[in-house]
């Protein structure tokens, strides 16, 4: 690698958190270099022609509820660099056999109306938290600390720190129970385990507060906007340089690693104190994703047409079905009917495929590192709720845990969250409560989703890591985020 020497900061990895950290430092006037191993920046936020010419697929993320509420992303002029959000009419649909799909809508009242007798229980769950949503957000999207609004946080904690199945006792009917189960299953935890409810609550609340948007043109546009903004701030990005030893890096006052604990051990074990090594070795990774990307001749033929209006469709059946599937994955056994998430971006963003054609992805939750092929199981789940789907497939590519990890080493064993989101690792991620971004090595920091607040495209891990770097290495405080503005402020949006 030929790099200028003596940078203020080097960031290894150009995922959304690496880029966020780089932007946060560069806008404080620091000289920042980002070194990315892949040919293109973006990590989990890239868009590419994976199947056929003209079909632009999101390599990983498509649906961005957390980007929409990220105080850090909201503070950046990303719209000036071409980022435009599209809000699909519904955040989420959960089809069920022999009854209309359960729908998460923007308006809690209409979600409740669709949930029949469970409507009041739904609003009883979400309304009190929505009242304090803007107070809660900064505390939820950061490391554990004394909350700014303790009462709001206590209310959230009393619900969120429970297992999904305990909260589900508020609901009597299949619709509400299944909708809730699908949201909580994003935690990749057994639904009987805490804090699966916390993830479900955050997703329900983001759905009501600001929707589950997609980026026009694909999630790669988020990366392009972050990277372009970084360059305007004087930062540089070098791609195609996988770092295998810390010693390879040019001299810098701070190094931020957009990697997970296993990679930190691989590239820097000798530099780390034995106690920290042992703690990193105890870090736990969660179940995996098995992803299918489709080029489709037509839109998905959902039995319930409301599913065509949703940003994400959860295919898993009843709460009991979803719970069974998630329990199996956690035990390391492949479920016969896995929980599947389906995204259909061209229903709202036609430009990602040739005229009249579509792209879509489905991913199933599978056991960590699972070596098998889940294609048939996933397509059986889709066909249950969209008969005829298979006839529309022009091309597909399948990537299981190994292929995902080969493409991006942060996806250890196919874990898309940078590590299990169990109770301990929700708070103490990766190793401890006190400044989780700083390692014991002077000037060495972590900024990936293996730090709080964890997985998802929001850049908040990078922002908090940059704050820590500024404090510990440069002896100053980050300029506060001007805005805990309303989501979308300053961003262009279309529905
Ligand atoms: C299939 C899939 C679907 C997803 N769907 C969604 C979704 O719809 N919505 C959502 O919000 N989130 C989604 N996610 C999760 C989201 O993509 C991640 O949480 C997010 O990208 C994590 O950001 P990060 O910056 O911490 O790491 P990553 O995005 O993983 O980026 C890490 C970067 O570091 C680079 N790197 C690693 N090691 C080295 C090294 N040694 N040298 C140089 N470079 C290195 C990698 O190449 C990569 O570019 C999905 C993830 C996957 C895999």
Structure write-up:
- Helix content is 34%, strand content 17%.
- The protein is an alpha/beta fold.
- It has a domain at 7-45 and 77-84 and 215-283 and 421-494: FAD/NAD(P)-binding domain.
- Strands 7-6-12-13-14-11-15 form a 7-stranded mixed sheet, with helices on both faces.
- A hairpin with an 8-residue loop joins strand 3 and strand 4 (57-58).
- Helix 1 packs parallel to helix 11, helix 1 (16-26) packs across helix 18 and helix 9 packs across helix 10 (196-210).
- The longest helix has 15 residues, at 196-210.
- The relative contact order is 0.20.
- Bound molecules: flavin-adenine dinucleotide (FAD).
- Flavin-adenine dinucleotide (FAD) binds at residues 12-18, 35-38, 43-45, 60-64, 66, 242-243, 258-259, 263, 267, 289, 291, 363, 404, 408-411, 416, 418, 448-449, 455-457, 461.
The CATH topology of one domain:
FAD/NAD(P)-binding domain
Taking all Cα atoms into account, the compactness measure Rg is: 21 Å
Hetero groups = flavin-adenine dinucleotide
Distance between the termini: 44 Å
Question: In the CATH hierarchy, what is the superfamily of one domain?
Answer: FAD/NAD(P)-binding domain
Low-confidence stretches: 483-495
